[in-house]
Amino acid sequence: MSAPSEAPVAVVTGGARRLGRHLCTTLAARGFDLVVLYRTAETEAHGLTSEISAHGGRARALAVDVGVETQVATVFSDIRRTEGKVDLLINNVGNYNPQHLTQLDPTVWDATLAANLSGAFYCCYHALPFMSNGGSIVNVGMAGLEGIRANVHGTDYYVSKTGLLVLTRALAAAHADRRIRVNMVSPGQLDNSIDLPPPDKIGHTVPLGRAGSLDDVTQAVEYLLDANYVTGVNIDISGGYRL
Protein backbone atom coordinates (compact mmCIF):
# COMPACT_ATOMS: atom_id res chain seq x y z
CA MET A 1 0.00 0.00 0.00
CA SER A 2 1.75 3.13 -1.15
CA ALA A 3 -0.81 5.69 0.06
CA PRO A 4 -3.68 5.79 2.54
CA SER A 5 -7.06 4.78 1.17
CA GLU A 6 -10.55 5.91 1.99
CA ALA A 7 -11.50 2.24 2.32
CA PRO A 8 -11.90 0.78 5.81
CA VAL A 9 -8.76 -0.87 7.18
CA ALA A 10 -8.78 -4.28 8.87
CA VAL A 11 -5.89 -5.77 10.82
CA VAL A 12 -5.99 -9.54 11.36
CA THR A 13 -3.54 -11.34 13.62
CA GLY A 14 -2.62 -14.87 12.63
CA GLY A 15 -4.02 -13.90 9.25
CA ALA A 16 -1.93 -16.08 6.94
CA ARG A 17 -3.45 -19.50 7.56
CA ARG A 18 -6.64 -21.39 8.31
CA LEU A 19 -9.37 -19.22 9.85
CA GLY A 20 -7.27 -16.07 9.66
CA ARG A 21 -6.79 -16.47 5.93
CA HIS A 22 -10.50 -17.07 5.39
CA LEU A 23 -11.34 -13.98 7.41
CA CYS A 24 -8.92 -11.89 5.33
CA THR A 25 -10.37 -12.98 1.99
CA THR A 26 -13.91 -12.40 3.30
CA LEU A 27 -13.04 -8.91 4.50
CA ALA A 28 -11.26 -8.07 1.24
CA ALA A 29 -14.44 -9.03 -0.63
CA ARG A 30 -16.32 -6.60 1.62
CA GLY A 31 -14.02 -3.76 0.55
CA PHE A 32 -11.55 -3.67 3.43
CA ASP A 33 -7.89 -2.91 2.98
CA LEU A 34 -6.03 -5.67 4.83
CA VAL A 35 -2.99 -5.72 7.06
CA VAL A 36 -2.15 -9.38 7.59
CA LEU A 37 -0.08 -10.01 10.72
CA TYR A 38 1.87 -13.26 10.89
CA ARG A 39 4.68 -14.72 13.00
CA THR A 40 6.34 -17.48 10.95
CA ALA A 41 4.06 -18.06 7.91
CA GLU A 42 5.86 -15.63 5.61
CA THR A 43 5.26 -17.54 2.37
CA GLU A 44 1.55 -18.01 3.08
CA ALA A 45 1.13 -14.38 4.17
CA HIS A 46 2.66 -12.93 1.03
CA GLY A 47 0.79 -15.43 -1.12
CA LEU A 48 -2.44 -14.24 0.46
CA THR A 49 -1.70 -10.56 -0.11
CA SER A 50 -0.81 -11.30 -3.73
CA GLU A 51 -4.10 -13.14 -4.17
CA ILE A 52 -6.08 -10.25 -2.70
CA SER A 53 -4.23 -7.78 -4.92
CA ALA A 54 -4.89 -9.92 -7.99
CA HIS A 55 -8.62 -9.60 -7.28
CA GLY A 56 -8.43 -5.81 -7.05
CA GLY A 57 -8.01 -5.48 -3.30
CA ARG A 58 -5.31 -3.87 -1.19
CA ALA A 59 -3.31 -5.88 1.31
CA ARG A 60 0.09 -6.12 2.88
CA ALA A 61 1.71 -8.47 5.37
CA LEU A 62 3.79 -7.66 8.44
CA ALA A 63 5.76 -10.07 10.62
CA VAL A 64 5.22 -9.84 14.39
CA ASP A 65 5.19 -12.02 17.47
CA VAL A 66 2.13 -10.59 19.20
CA GLY A 67 3.32 -11.96 22.52
CA VAL A 68 6.21 -9.46 22.49
CA GLU A 69 4.91 -5.99 23.28
CA THR A 70 7.80 -4.12 21.68
CA GLN A 71 7.19 -5.89 18.37
CA VAL A 72 3.48 -5.08 18.52
CA ALA A 73 4.28 -1.41 19.21
CA THR A 74 6.58 -1.29 16.17
CA VAL A 75 4.02 -2.89 13.86
CA PHE A 76 1.20 -0.59 14.88
CA SER A 77 3.44 2.45 14.50
CA ASP A 78 4.02 1.26 10.93
CA ILE A 79 0.27 0.86 10.39
CA ARG A 80 -0.39 4.33 11.79
CA ARG A 81 2.13 5.85 9.40
CA THR A 82 0.99 3.91 6.35
CA GLU A 83 -2.76 3.26 6.66
CA GLY A 84 -3.41 6.09 9.12
CA LYS A 85 -6.26 4.30 10.90
CA VAL A 86 -7.71 0.97 11.98
CA ASP A 87 -11.42 0.35 11.49
CA LEU A 88 -11.41 -3.33 12.44
CA LEU A 89 -9.02 -5.40 14.54
CA ILE A 90 -9.44 -9.16 14.69
CA ASN A 91 -7.37 -10.90 17.35
CA ASN A 92 -7.34 -14.35 15.80
CA VAL A 93 -4.18 -15.87 17.28
CA GLY A 94 -4.95 -19.03 19.23
CA ASN A 95 -1.98 -21.19 20.14
CA TYR A 96 -3.37 -24.53 21.31
CA ASN A 97 -1.37 -27.03 23.31
CA PRO A 98 -3.35 -30.20 24.16
CA GLN A 99 -0.95 -31.48 26.82
CA HIS A 100 -2.37 -32.87 30.05
CA LEU A 101 -2.02 -30.37 32.88
CA THR A 102 0.28 -32.69 34.82
CA GLN A 103 2.73 -32.51 31.90
CA LEU A 104 2.42 -28.78 31.25
CA ASP A 105 5.72 -26.94 31.39
CA PRO A 106 5.79 -23.34 32.72
CA THR A 107 7.56 -22.20 29.56
CA VAL A 108 4.65 -23.48 27.44
CA TRP A 109 2.16 -21.90 29.84
CA ASP A 110 3.89 -18.52 29.52
CA ALA A 111 4.05 -18.75 25.73
CA THR A 112 0.34 -19.59 25.43
CA LEU A 113 -0.76 -16.78 27.71
CA ALA A 114 1.56 -14.35 25.94
CA ALA A 115 0.23 -15.15 22.47
CA ASN A 116 -3.46 -15.68 23.19
CA LEU A 117 -4.19 -13.16 25.93
CA SER A 118 -1.40 -10.64 26.38
CA GLY A 119 -0.99 -10.43 22.60
CA ALA A 120 -4.62 -9.47 22.16
CA PHE A 121 -4.27 -6.81 24.85
CA TYR A 122 -1.10 -5.43 23.24
CA CYS A 123 -2.79 -5.18 19.85
CA CYS A 124 -5.83 -3.43 21.33
CA TYR A 125 -3.64 -1.10 23.38
CA HIS A 126 -1.66 0.03 20.35
CA ALA A 127 -4.59 0.11 17.88
CA LEU A 128 -7.17 1.95 19.96
CA PRO A 129 -5.46 5.38 20.00
CA PHE A 130 -5.92 5.66 16.23
CA MET A 131 -8.93 3.40 15.74
CA SER A 132 -11.78 5.16 13.98
CA ASN A 133 -14.73 6.15 16.13
CA GLY A 134 -17.35 3.54 15.38
CA GLY A 135 -14.68 0.93 14.77
CA SER A 136 -14.83 -2.69 15.85
CA ILE A 137 -12.70 -5.29 17.59
CA VAL A 138 -13.49 -8.99 17.27
CA ASN A 139 -11.63 -11.46 19.46
CA VAL A 140 -11.59 -15.16 18.62
CA GLY A 141 -12.20 -17.43 21.59
CA MET A 142 -13.45 -20.96 22.08
CA ALA A 143 -16.87 -22.50 22.60
CA GLY A 144 -18.14 -23.11 26.10
CA LEU A 145 -16.55 -20.12 27.83
CA GLU A 146 -19.81 -19.13 29.50
CA GLY A 147 -19.68 -22.22 31.72
CA ILE A 148 -16.33 -22.66 33.47
CA ARG A 149 -15.44 -26.31 33.78
CA ALA A 150 -12.38 -28.43 34.40
CA ASN A 151 -10.26 -28.94 31.28
CA VAL A 152 -7.16 -30.96 32.07
CA HIS A 153 -6.02 -31.05 28.43
CA GLY A 154 -5.02 -27.66 27.03
CA THR A 155 -5.60 -25.88 30.34
CA ASP A 156 -3.31 -23.02 29.33
CA TYR A 157 -5.43 -22.46 26.22
CA TYR A 158 -8.70 -22.49 28.16
CA VAL A 159 -7.34 -20.07 30.75
CA SER A 160 -6.11 -17.70 28.04
CA LYS A 161 -9.43 -17.68 26.20
CA THR A 162 -11.45 -17.24 29.40
CA GLY A 163 -9.27 -14.23 30.17
CA LEU A 164 -9.88 -12.96 26.65
CA LEU A 165 -13.63 -13.02 27.27
CA VAL A 166 -13.17 -10.90 30.41
CA LEU A 167 -10.95 -8.51 28.43
CA THR A 168 -13.52 -8.33 25.61
CA ARG A 169 -16.28 -7.22 27.95
CA ALA A 170 -14.08 -4.73 29.79
CA LEU A 171 -12.91 -3.14 26.53
CA ALA A 172 -16.50 -2.94 25.29
CA ALA A 173 -17.51 -0.98 28.40
CA ALA A 174 -14.40 1.20 28.41
CA HIS A 175 -14.63 2.36 24.78
CA ALA A 176 -18.38 2.57 24.24
CA ASP A 177 -18.21 6.37 24.39
CA ARG A 178 -16.33 6.26 21.07
CA ARG A 179 -18.87 3.80 19.66
CA ILE A 180 -16.09 1.23 19.38
CA ARG A 181 -17.70 -2.16 19.70
CA VAL A 182 -15.76 -5.12 21.10
CA ASN A 183 -17.14 -8.63 20.69
CA MET A 184 -16.02 -12.23 20.59
CA VAL A 185 -16.70 -15.25 18.41
CA SER A 186 -15.98 -18.69 19.82
CA PRO A 187 -15.72 -21.62 17.41
CA GLY A 188 -16.24 -25.17 18.59
CA GLN A 189 -15.21 -28.26 16.64
CA LEU A 190 -14.32 -27.04 13.15
CA ASP A 191 -13.73 -29.31 10.19
CA ASN A 192 -10.01 -28.45 10.35
CA SER A 193 -9.66 -28.87 14.13
CA ILE A 194 -6.68 -30.99 15.15
CA ASP A 195 -8.75 -33.01 17.65
CA LEU A 196 -11.91 -33.45 15.56
CA PRO A 197 -13.87 -36.65 16.36
CA PRO A 198 -14.70 -38.98 13.43
CA PRO A 199 -17.99 -38.24 11.61
CA ASP A 200 -19.80 -41.15 13.29
CA LYS A 201 -18.80 -39.87 16.76
CA ILE A 202 -19.16 -36.10 16.51
CA GLY A 203 -22.87 -36.21 17.29
CA HIS A 204 -21.97 -37.37 20.80
CA THR A 205 -20.58 -33.93 21.61
CA VAL A 206 -22.12 -31.67 18.93
CA PRO A 207 -25.94 -31.78 18.94
CA LEU A 208 -26.20 -30.54 15.33
CA GLY A 209 -24.13 -33.57 14.32
CA ARG A 210 -21.44 -31.98 12.19
CA ALA A 211 -18.23 -30.02 12.46
CA GLY A 212 -18.34 -26.29 11.87
CA SER A 213 -16.86 -24.70 8.76
CA LEU A 214 -14.77 -21.59 8.28
CA ASP A 215 -17.80 -20.05 6.58
CA ASP A 216 -19.81 -20.59 9.77
CA VAL A 217 -17.29 -18.49 11.67
CA THR A 218 -16.96 -15.71 9.11
CA GLN A 219 -20.76 -15.49 8.93
CA ALA A 220 -20.81 -14.65 12.64
CA VAL A 221 -18.01 -12.10 12.22
CA GLU A 222 -19.88 -10.44 9.37
CA TYR A 223 -23.00 -10.28 11.54
CA LEU A 224 -21.02 -8.44 14.22
CA LEU A 225 -19.62 -6.00 11.67
CA ASP A 226 -23.17 -5.03 10.67
CA ALA A 227 -24.75 -5.17 14.15
CA ASN A 228 -24.23 -1.59 15.30
CA TYR A 229 -26.07 -2.09 18.59
CA VAL A 230 -24.17 -5.20 19.71
CA THR A 231 -21.13 -4.95 21.97
CA GLY A 232 -19.57 -7.00 24.74
CA VAL A 233 -21.08 -10.29 23.55
CA ASN A 234 -19.62 -13.72 22.89
CA ILE A 235 -21.14 -15.84 20.13
CA ASP A 236 -20.57 -19.59 20.27
CA ILE A 237 -20.30 -21.04 16.76
CA SER A 238 -20.44 -24.63 17.86
CA GLY A 239 -23.55 -26.51 16.77
CA GLY A 240 -24.54 -26.79 20.41
CA TYR A 241 -21.13 -28.07 21.55
CA ARG A 242 -20.91 -28.19 25.35
CA LEU A 243 -24.54 -27.25 25.99
The CATH class is identified as Alpha Beta
The count of β-strands is: 7
Query: What is the structural class?
Result: alpha/beta
What is the first-to-last residue Cα distance? Answer: 45 Å
State the CATH architecture.
3-Layer(aba) Sandwich
CATH superfamily, please?
NAD(P)-binding Rossmann-like Domain
Whole-number count of domains: 1
Question: Segments where pLDDT lies below 50 for 5+ residues?
Answer: none
Quote the average pLDDT: 94
The main pleated sheet reads as: 7 strands, parallel
Q: Which percent band covers the strand fraction?
A: 15-25%
Please report the number of helical segments. Answer: 6
Cα-atom Rg, whole angstroms?
Answer: 17 Å
Q: What general form does the structure show?
A: globular
Question: Largest beta sheet: what is the strand line-up?
Answer: 3-2-1-4-5-6-7
Short description:
The chain has 243 residues and is of the alpha/beta class. Helices cover 39% and strands 18% of the residues.
How would you characterize the overall build of this protein?
The chain is α/β, with parallel strands linked by helices. It has one domain: 3-Layer(aba) Sandwich (Rossmann fold), CATH 3.40.50. The chain is built from 6 helices and 7 strands. The protein has helices at 18-29, 42-54, 69-82, 106-127, 155-174, 214-226; strands at 9-13, 33-38, 59-63, 86-91, 131-140, 181-187, 234-237. It has a 7-stranded parallel β-sheet, sandwiched between helices. Helix 5 (155-174) links the parallel strand 5 (131-140) and strand 6. Helix 1 packs across helix 6 (214-226) and helix 4 (106-127) packs parallel to helix 5 (155-174). The longest helix is centred in the middle third of the chain and has 22 residues, at 106-127. It is globular. It starts with 8 loop residues before the first strand and ends in a 6-residue tail after the last strand. The model has no long low-confidence stretch (mean pLDDT 94).
